[in-house]
Write a structure and sequence with these properties.
Length: 79
């Protein structure tokens, strides 16, 4: 699965670089969708997905991200 984000001025940290929170938000969102499509682990209570964030033009890795999703089942309302 691929996801992209167009970097705009509001994504830039005060030091002039891409804000880490922007990278984490992109990777976390991709992992959420990835668990539905291409998870590394699909358990009964947890799901695991990995994401590699790269610069589109240079191909350089920006971040390696591992996300563990907790599966929450609805409470049985019939009881």
């Amino acid at each position: 699965m691929d996801a992209e984000l167009e970097v705009k001025p509001h994504h830039i940290a005060p030091n002039g670089y891409l804000h880490a929170g922007t990278v984490v938000a992109l990777a976390n969102t991709a992992c959420g969708y990835g668990c539905v499509a291409t998870a590394a682990h699909l358990g009964r209570t947890t799901q695991l997905c990995d994401a590699t964030v790269t610069h589109r033009d240079t191909g350089k890795t920006i971040s390696l991200f591992r996300c563990t999703q907790l599966v929450i089942y609805p409470k049985d309302r019939a009881a």
